[in-house]
Amino acid sequence: MRTEVITIRTGSRPVVRDITREAERFAESEGDGLLHVFVPHATAGLAIIETGAGSDDDLLAAIDQLLPAEDRWRHRHGSKGHGRDHVLPAWIPPYASLPVIGGRIALGTWQSICLVDTNGDNPERQVRFSFLPG
């Protein structure tokens, strides 16, 4: 198994950040197998979605509706509504596993690998790529 950790700057506002290129660079020298992507944070997740056509903003809007950033959360340290950030990984998990065929991630035409981070208190995130040969 080969693994690599990268740092992604997410900033101070909720963001859906496309990390497909970084994942492709990691997997390009491999053959067939499985790419596992993991975000070792309690307040971020990974989504496989279309980007660039508004879906990333739609995802953030859906998160705001499902998990509003307000003071109703019991988990209260950090910025206002930070408790919702700790609930986020229950809906958007911190991991994804994708097939790699001939060194290429087998994503669908409009699919991208995206880091979803609603926690503005931490402007940088770690992402671990691991390749398991087939």
UniProtKB/TrEMBL annotation:
Source species, domain of life = Bacteria
> What's one Pfam family the UniProt record gives for this protein?
YjbQ
Where, if anywhere, are coiled coils annotated? none
InterPro entries noted in UniProt: UPF0047_YjbQ-like (IPR001602), YjbQ-like_sf (IPR035917)
Q: Which family does it belong to?
A: Belongs to the UPF0047 family.
Could you tell me what this protein is called?
A: Secondary thiamine-phosphate synthase enzyme
Q: Which organism is it from?
A: Paractinoplanes brasiliensis
